[in-house]
Amino acid sequence: MQTRAAQARALLATLEPSVKLRTYFVEDNATIRENLIGTLEELASVQAVGVAETEDAGKEWLTTHAGQWDLAIVDLFLRQGNGLGVLAACRARRPGQKIVVLSNYATPDVRMRCTQLGGDAVFDKSNEIDALVAYCVLHGSRSADPGTGPVLP
């Protein structure tokens, strides 16, 4: 039986042309951030366009570089501030831009609050990395195909 990561790799291999998903990371733990970037660059054709460790830095970059990112991956607990502030600051983003939360605290209440603030998806760091990879693969394929557009559920 294939793992979700293997399924994501197989799906990615069928998609041409390969378009890199310009992704911005708001994560204060350097080890987690670097491992996540490496995994997503390998499995989901993600290109890291920048990182922030604080709410203020994440909000500033994402709002002033509106045309330079396709996906933002945001942790909830940051060195300064929190990911909820980043979500709220990005509510008026361009169509097709997605912002997702990756957290160890993906409870039903947290998921609901993230959705209320404009988050497109919430993934649990401990057991939903494969689902995040699949989400990135799907978002990248939609961005590459003008016929389907970059809109995801």
UniProtKB/TrEMBL annotation:
Key word Transmembrane present: no
SUPFAM superfamilies: CheY-like
Keyword Phosphoprotein on entry: yes
Residues in Response regulatory domain copies: 22-140
Keyword line: Phosphoprotein
Chain positions with 4-aspartylphosphate modification: D75
Example GO biological process: phosphorelay signal transduction system
Top-level division of the source organism's lineage: Bacteria
Pfam families named in the record: Response_reg
Protein name as it appears in the record: Response regulator receiver protein
